[in-house]
């Protein structure tokens, strides 16, 4: 194992996994605490539409994904905020539409065959320095946002009705949260793939939520768990020469099942 | 003891509100006076919560005037402690009772602000009033329905409000917790005005000073009783209502006055 760690691409992959884990630990805390995992899934899948469009129109993939994802996120976010209990169908439609658009435009692009799998599960072993820098920059930006508005975001996430009565700009903060999720998706989709983004956004935060007493501690615990999943998953994928994204997801999911089993046993005892 | 003149906490005149084209309130008037303990009753979908949200400035009526402490509610809503229906709060949210109460001190436009020592003292006082200080470090999930409501009331009290507006505070509280909650409210009513949306007609005679019956239109009855007019307005079938609460000895016959004509 140690000779693997000498290789630059393994080091980059590890760093990428840790950064992705931290970013998703922070954003996932809000996703889970606000019960918007489905919305986050919709955003992540709609992002694929941007990939296809960018290819077809010869734009830079980053710009295409950024534009399409932000537009999708704002539409879905607006629908969600307007009618929370009825938005799931519309989100489901946009979820499917985004994926379909992505595939169709990729088909229509002459001579280009993008690998769908690489957007679903990422290619963390081929991560570039630029992607690492983008992730680090986004962690700093979102970190500042969270520190500035920590109490307001907590109030909005916990009880938006009360926050509104206190004069907190609830809708603006909710949209900013959704935009932050979208930006995280854009940065992470190339690296770890949209399926892994959803896994990192939901599994660890869900486990952490059961034990924590504040959003801050939930972010720390989710980030640590995510980093653990990433490192163990990467190690296993290198050791057994399998795709790393699914390996990380399997590690996280198995930990989740074990945790739920443990909770059930404890409740019975 | 000098009795101070009664002042108006909130007033509505000619307020009409429609939600997605569906008329909820129609030309409604209301005067809520200081130190009142008013219960808003009425059928589901009759506009009880809407009425409270309009008074708080959370919803804007299509027509009519709303005043809270003599000014537009958007300017004065912070002087009211609000206890929304608890369905809005995510039950499994990782937060302690103390942090929920501190939330009541939030004000717009203050970044980076940490809660001060004064804030913590105010939170302690509010939790103490509701006898919840010993439970301050518990997760909200670990508290009973009644205890949770007491924390929500403490959160509303922490900003030292002049009125307390509660939306169905006893919806998920067992019978003992309900009695307990209302006796806390009765004690608070010695200092502040209380407006409560409730389904629970049991509370009417023992705690409440006036009854506001809402079903598109509104009757404010300045006594703790349900009049036949209210029954006609509020419930299509009074018998159904009689079957629920301990109503028979609380429904008083028509005795004249503005709402019993």
Automatic annotation (TrEMBL), chain A:
Q: What is the lineage of its organism?
A: Bacteria, Pseudomonadati, Thermodesulfobacteriota, Syntrophobacteria, Syntrophobacterales
Membrane-spanning intervals of the chain: 12-31, 38-57, 63-81, 93-112, 132-150, 162-181, 187-208, 215-238, 244-265
Keywords of the record: Membrane, Transmembrane, Transmembrane helix, Transport
Broad class of the protein's primary localization: membrane
Cited PANTHER family: ABC-TRANSPORTER METAL-BINDING PROTEIN, METAL TRANSPORT SYSTEM MEMBRANE PROTEIN CT_417-RELATED
**What is this protein's record name?**
Zinc transport system permease protein
Q: Which domain of life is it from?
A: Bacteria
Q: Which GO terms describe its cellular component?
A: ATP-binding cassette (ABC) transporter complex
From TrEMBL, chain B:
**Which InterPro entries has this protein been placed in?**
AAA+_ATPase, ABC_transporter-like_ATP-bd, ABC_transporter-like_CS, Metal_Ion_Import_ABC, P-loop_NTPase
Q: One Pfam family from the UniProt entry?
A: ABC_tran
CDD domains registered for this protein in UniProt:
ABC_Metallic_Cations
SMART domains assigned: AAA
Q: Where is the ABC transporter domain?
A: 10-241
The record's PROSITE patterns line, in alphabetical order, gives: ABC_TRANSPORTER_1 (PS00211), ABC_TRANSPORTER_2 (PS50893)
Return one GO MF term: ATP hydrolysis activity
Which keywords belong to this entry? ATP-binding, Nucleotide-binding, Transport
Enumerate the Gene3D superfamilies for this protein. Answer: P-loop containing nucleotide triphosphate hydrolases
Could you say which protein family the record assigns here? Answer: Belongs to the ABC transporter superfamily.
Name it: Zinc transport system ATP-binding protein
Q: What organism, scientifically named, is this protein from?
A: Desulfacinum hydrothermale DSM 13146
């Amino acid at each position: 194992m140690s000779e693997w760690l000498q290789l630059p691409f393994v080091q980059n992959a590890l760093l990428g996994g840790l950064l992705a884990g931290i970013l998703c630990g922070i954003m996932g805390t809000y996703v889970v605490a606000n019960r918007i995992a489905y919305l986050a899934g919709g955003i992540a899948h709609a992002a694929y539409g941007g990939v296809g469009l960018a290819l077809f129109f010869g734009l830079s993939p980053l710009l295409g994904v950024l534009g399409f994802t932000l537009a999708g996120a704002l539409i879905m976010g607006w629908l969600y905020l307007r009618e929370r209990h009825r938005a799931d169908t519309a989100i489901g439609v946009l979820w499917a539409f985004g994926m379909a658009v992505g595939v169709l435009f990729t088909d229509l692009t002459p001579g280009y065959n993008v690998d769908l799998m690489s957007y679903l599960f990422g290619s963390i072993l081929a991560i570039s320095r630029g992607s690492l820098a983008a992730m680090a920059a986004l962690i700093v930006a979102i970190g500042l946002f969270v520190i500035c508005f920590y109490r307001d975001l907590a109030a909005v996430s916990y009880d938006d009705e009360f926050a509104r009565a206190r004069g907190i700009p609830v809708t603006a903060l909710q949209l900013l949260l959704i935009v932050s999720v979208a930006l995280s998706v854009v940065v992470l989709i190339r690296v770890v793939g949209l399926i892994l983004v959803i896994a990192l956004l939901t599994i660890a935060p869900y486990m952490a939520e059961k034990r924590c007493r504040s959003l801050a501690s939930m972010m720390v615990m989710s980030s640590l768990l995510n980093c653990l999943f990433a490192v163990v998953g990467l190690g296993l994928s290198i050791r057994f020469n399998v795709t790393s994204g699914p390996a990380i997801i399997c590690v996280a999911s198995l930990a989740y099942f074990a945790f739920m089993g443990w909770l059930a046993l404890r409740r019975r005892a | 003891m000098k009795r101070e003149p009664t002042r108006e906490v909130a007033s509505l005149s000619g307020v009409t509100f429609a939600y997605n084209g569906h008329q909820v309130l129609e030309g409604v008037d209301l005067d809520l006076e200081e130190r009142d303990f008013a219960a808003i009753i009425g059928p589901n979908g009759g506009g009880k919560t809407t009425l409270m949200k309009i008074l708080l400035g959370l919803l804007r009526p299509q027509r009519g005037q709303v005043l809270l402490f003599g000014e537009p509610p958007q300017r004065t809503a912070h002087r009211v402690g609000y206890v929304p229906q608890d369905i809005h709060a995510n039950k499994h949210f990782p937060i302690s009772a103390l942090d929920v109460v501190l939330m009541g001190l939030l004000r717009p436009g203050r970044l980076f602000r940490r809660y001060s020592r004064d804030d913590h003292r105010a939170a302690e006082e509010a939790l103490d009033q509701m006898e919840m200080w010993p439970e301050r470090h518990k997760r909200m999930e670990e508290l009973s329905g009644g205890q949770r409501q007491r924390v929500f009331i403490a959160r509303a009290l922490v900003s030292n409000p002049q009125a307390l507006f509660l939306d169905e505070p006893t919806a998920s509280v067992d019978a003992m917790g309900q009695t307990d909650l209302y006796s806390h409210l009765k004690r608070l009513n010695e200092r502040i005005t209380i407006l409560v949306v409730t389904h629970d007609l049991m509370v009417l005679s023992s705690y409440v000073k006036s009854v506001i019956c809402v079903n598109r239109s509104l009757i404010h009855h300045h006594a703790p009783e349900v009049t036949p007019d209210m029954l006609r307005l509020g419930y299509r079938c009074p018998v159904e209502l009689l079957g629920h609460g301990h109503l028979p000895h609380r429904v008083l016959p028509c005795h004249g006055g503005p709402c019993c004509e």
